[in-house]
Specification:
The chain is mostly helical. The protein folds into 2 domains: 3-101, no CATH class; 152-199, no CATH class. The chain is built from 10 helices and no strands. It has helices spanning 3-13, 16-21, 31-44, 53-65, 70-77, 84-101, 113-123, 128-150, 165-169, 183-196. The chain is rod-shaped. The protein starts with a helix and ends in a 9-residue tail after the last helix.
Length: 205
């Protein structure tokens, strides 16, 4: 049998007077709620504490003696109450003060950080154009770097000028491409290329 069934079964076997005199404060039960429950049990047991001062003192002692809060028990033992309503008022004030002193309950909200990141990504302005330009610049830089590596190094002539024969002829099959030209030969080659492309002829100096 469960504990609840045993407790209710034993209560049914007890008389109202025995139930009243054996009543104690339950675990987690407030003092005011215990007083209301004890008052009801006293009335059922025929203990008329509201009319007789002697019965009232016995009833209050019964209440204080069965309190589970030792600090409250010591406080109430040093007081004498003329009416039960006075004790009820003190217990109500005590509960209200405790509620005011206790911090408000904070509701803990579970947040999905992945969902928050998705929302922030949707609200963040996208800078795709800038990234494309930067990427294009990087590609151009890499292409220019590759082109500069493919170009042949210019050869310096005796007069300090450099000229590639294959650039003048438009091809790389000229056997004189590796020959170092003098200044006169360089001028002659320039005029020869100009004649080939139809440039107006001028008398050489």
């Amino acid at each position: 049998m469960s504990k609840l069934f045993k407790r209710e079964y034993c209560k049914s076997k007890l008389s109202e007077a025995e139930r009243y005199y054996t009543m104690t404060q339950r675990k987690g039960e407030k003092a005011l709620a215990f007083l209301y429950r004890l008052n009801l049990a006293a009335e059922r047991a025929g203990v008329y504490f509201r009319k007789s001062s002697k019965k009232r003192e016995q009833h209050l002692r019964q209440f204080v003696r069965n309190l589970s809060d030792e600090s409250l028990k010591e406080t109430l033992q040093s007081h004498r109450f003329k009416k039960v309503v006075d004790l009820e008022y003190i217990l109500k004030q005590r509960e209200e003060l405790r509620q005011e002193d206790s911090p408000p309950a904070r509701v803990q909200q579970t947040r999905d950080f992945r969902a928050d990141n998705v929302v922030r990504d949707r609200l963040k302005p996208k800078r795709r154009d800038r990234a494309f330009v930067a990427q294009g610049d990087a590609e151009l830089d890499s292409e220019e770097h590759e082109m500069s590596e493919d170009l042949p190094e210019p050869r310096t002539g005796t007069s300090g000028s450099s000229f590639a024969q294959e650039d003048l002829d438009g091809g790389g099959s000229n056997p004189r491409a590796d020959v170092v030209l003098t200044k006169d030969e360089l001028i002659h080659e320039v005029f020869r290329v100009m004649e080939r492309v139809g440039w107006p002829q001028r008398a050489p100096p």
